[in-house]
Amino acid sequence: MSQAKVPAWVNIALIPVLNILLAFLVSGLVILAIGENPIEAAGYLIYGAFGYDEGIGYTLYYATNLIFTGLAVSVAFKGGLFNIGGEGQAYIGGLGVGLICLSLDHTMPFYVIAPLAVIGAAVFGAAWGYIPAYLQARRGSHIVITTIMFNFIASSLMVYLIVNWLKEDGRMAPNSRTFEENAWLPYLHEIFSPLGIEIGDSPLNLAFVWALLCCVFVWGLIWHTRWGYQLRTLGTNPTAARYAGIDTAKVTIWAMLISGGLAGFVGLNEIMGVNHNLLLNFTAGYGFAGIAVSLMGRNHPIGIILAAVLFGALYQGGAELAFEIPTITPEIVVVIQGLVILFSGALEHMFKDRIEGFFIRRAVA
Amino acid sequence: MFETLILMLDATMRVSTPLIFAALAGLYSERAGIVDIGLEGKILGSAFAAAAGAAVFGSAWIGLCFGIMASVSLAMIHGFACITHRGDHIVSGVAINTIVAGLTVTLSMDWFGMGGQTPALTGDARFLDITFPFADALESVPVIGSIYSNLLSGHNILVYLAFAMVPVTYWVIYKTRFGLRLRAVGENPHAVDTAGISVAFIRYRALIVCGILCGLAGAYLSTAHNAGFLKDMSAGKGYMALAALIFGKWRPVPVLLACLLFGFLDAVAVRMQGVEIPGIGEVPVQAIEVLPYVLTVLLLAGFIGKAVGPKAVGRPYVKERA
């Protein structure tokens, strides 16, 4: 009722911007406490992220991972599920990509390997999301706890597999052999240069395009299919969903399958796009960062792209910042991330209720 | 064989200590209806504050005070978000874990400039091991002597404190008025409110206790178990404590047993590295490391017993009935 009187731009733009400004303000205070100038730091950060070709490339490369995990969190969120296991699903998804590449790179051309790797990432990631989903839907165990446990199980499993089975013979480093080049996703600067467009060298690769396609897919799925409607109903009011005859267990399981599959695509970008071998800890916290991206992006694909680019810029700009001002570590970005989760997630009601109240009163008056 | 067992149990006590503190911390919080994913962050924050305090002032006790203050402040942020502003408990916990993971490294780089570590702590800046009276003299007595001198004696004060906290928690939760109200708030906050008791105030107090216990866990890690703070040194202990809390079904004594079991598995994993078992061959370390999580998942799924948490856990309290 009262929601209708609040102008749309308040919820879409004003509140998220206010939250991020608050997060920046607090991070600025941290930088001030370290004894550096926050304005100068912000300058380096923005230049590092957007000031030159390579910087933009890196920003979008980080954003690729964050789009995948952000979408993963938001699909589950739409159904009222908190998938905190994106980290584990991404890790196992990377295993799927790695296994496809390692087994086919000697025999198959790129256009066979690439679709199979996409399927591998999705199937492995989805499988890792399936078990917690099944346990939640059919056996009533809480999905947050099980997905946390599955992050640790994934981590141990990967260490075991890589160290004992996939490690290159005679090497100490815990990673697989490097794939042949026909199992590499092409870099965007390689794709563009024959067309006469020169962009700087960066790890930005074809996975970025796939990430954008995934956004379109999720948008269509959630807002333009019967299943998406069921998912949103389940997320808004589970009792009503059950009463309306929706098979909530089935929707729950499918939501987590899709969520896990999306998280698994991080493996495409990292394993097939950049590292070109299967290695430990390539997920590097992207699964958790996805929570911030999804909250910031209000669970909408367009918002997620914007939030992912913002966080990608923080990652890349943070590296530049640490280079220019050595007393500031790149971990400052993690602090900002946490503050965004705090302000736009945990403390969302702090401003929202007051601002909405203000606009409702104004509309009434 | 007996000597090996004593050594492993000794290691179990050391590894279990932070788990016991943190799991009991979670017990106070969750019994009062607040889900606490942020145990991990509070442990890490306290580990850093304790090590920094101990390094600067040269006293482990001052370090401990700093650790507890840091951890309680984080618990209060959690309370501010979850109790006052009815925020999502999980999101708030994730936020705290993320902020602390970044902030500890940022601050320690600035304060100590050692790649995110604190200086190595020596002497009074650490909690040193306490040797029981006559421990040396009794060591030669078969069985009992070994248990007394090698297993029970020779730990630092925080280890004993952790074990002492279990009966204390039992008493507080089940035998005091505060404990009764705390449990009631976790099961049926409306009833507590109807009785004229503030739900928010009880939950805040539960979180203060939770913060103090997490503070002890963190201080133990950086000023007793190790000699200084390392980046990400909590290494999932908060999550494992959460698993132990669930495995112990939110009750003090079973939680202690769960912590000891998980600690023992950790000691086994270290021992089993590269050891061939006749008939089975070498058991991968990871298979043992992963057992606490697998067991917790199985328990939650109802395959081994059934874990039912406090009824109102994770739900913000709103006065009017929805």
TrEMBL record, chain A:
The cross-references to InterPro entries, in alphabetical order and at most eight, read:
ABC_transp_permease
- Record-linked PANTHER family: ABC TRANSPORTER, PERMEASE PROTEIN, GUANOSINE ABC TRANSPORTER PERMEASE PROTEIN NUPP
Task: Reply yes or no: does the keyword Cell membrane apply.
Answer: yes
Name of the protein in question: ABC transporter permease
Q: How does it sit in the membrane?
A: Multi-pass membrane protein
Q: Where in the cell is it found?
A: Cell inner membrane
> Which branch of life, at top level?
Bacteria
Give the UniProt keywords, A-Z: Cell membrane, Membrane, Transmembrane, Transmembrane helix
Which Pfam family is one of those matched by this entry? Answer: BPD_transp_2
- Where are its TM segments located? 12-35, 55-77, 89-106, 112-131, 143-163, 204-223, 251-272, 278-297, 304-326, 332-351
Q: Which organism is it from?
A: Marinomonas pontica
Automatic annotation (TrEMBL), chain B:
Enumerate the subcellular locations listed in this protein's record, separating them with semicolons: Cell inner membrane
Report if keyword DNA repair is assigned: no
Which keywords label this protein?
Cell membrane, Membrane, Transmembrane, Transmembrane helix
Predominant subcellular localization, coarse grouping = membrane
Q: Where are the transmembrane segments?
A: 48-77, 89-109, 157-174, 253-270
- Coiled-coil residues are none
Q: What is this protein called?
A: ABC transporter permease
